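Our preliminary data section would be incomplete without showing what the modeling component actually yields. Below, a chain of 335 amino acids is followed by its predicted structure, encoded as tokens that our downstream tools consume directly.
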Amino acid sequence: MSATFLFLQCPRIGVECSGANGEACAHDLANLLGTVPVLRFDLAWRVMCPETIDNEGADIPSGNPRTQMNLLHQWLRQTLQSQATSATNIIALIPALKPAAEEWIRINVSFYASAVVMHPVDNHSRGSMLAEEWARFKEHKPTRWQDWWLPPLVRPWADKPMAALQNAQKRTEGADFTYLTGLLGSDRLAIQTYHIQPYKQGNRFHSHSDVDECYFILKGQGTLRVGSRSIPIGEGDFIPKPGGSGSAMEFTAGREGLTVVDIESWRRFDQTDVVRYPDHRETYLRGPGLNVACADKALFEGSEITASYDKHYVRRADGTKSHVKRGSKDFLDHG
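Predicted structure:
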């Protein structure tokens, strides 16, 4: 972790940084410092999260970062992993940012850097001027360079919530959720915290096929439903739920409510996973090229496919087979 990130921030929204002299400044500064090619966070944001950009700046999407900003997060991780270990100075162009987006990018970049600094650029900025100011900044003299490094700390229960966490919240009838995933710097670890209201439930009764999950009861008491059993739980309890076990779980809070830390371990966030919801009698299949669900009554044993692999038939919604000749009118009608 020896790299220094030098961010150049454009003041205008609606155009790329090149419209504010940022691109020319960045390349001039890169040549003067002998750095790797300039990283274009401004263009990545416009391509991967265009709906979050308005006249006030770029933002991060609301909701669960694992699903709402996975593409931008993956680009960031892959870019930092490839550049931060081999370069001394890394120059990057960023758009004007709202507080949540600024906090997100500062924390995630700080994982990979010994120093993170930012300098605003405008039509009067020049690469040579930025280089001179950078030299003075390293001597601890006053310049327009700002220290942007942030420690790897996430405080979901602080009196004043972190800006990035305010964008990563969800409220249901029974619970308040906060997603920490966007500030963890990981594409394998998904963490959320939630407070369940007295005598209410949190997430659905569910199981995963390929995601390991565990829960830590931070505060309160309640009931853990596991299959057909109900088990008393309380502060300090740690509850594992391995993927592929078929073990479905659900929490019900006691009279003082229940605060839970929910941790999921993924191979990667776009991996295939089958989620079963027994109470709802439905199954959700997600993954690359896969985002479908079906009623449980439509499911049948996979061995039926291999046993009938060389036969011609159409599967009905109720699971039965209609034997028709391939290419016939009946076959086409069934399709």
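The chain has a mean pLDDT of 90. The CA atoms of residues 301 and 307 lie 10 Å apart. Preliminary results of this kind motivate Aim 1 of the renewal.
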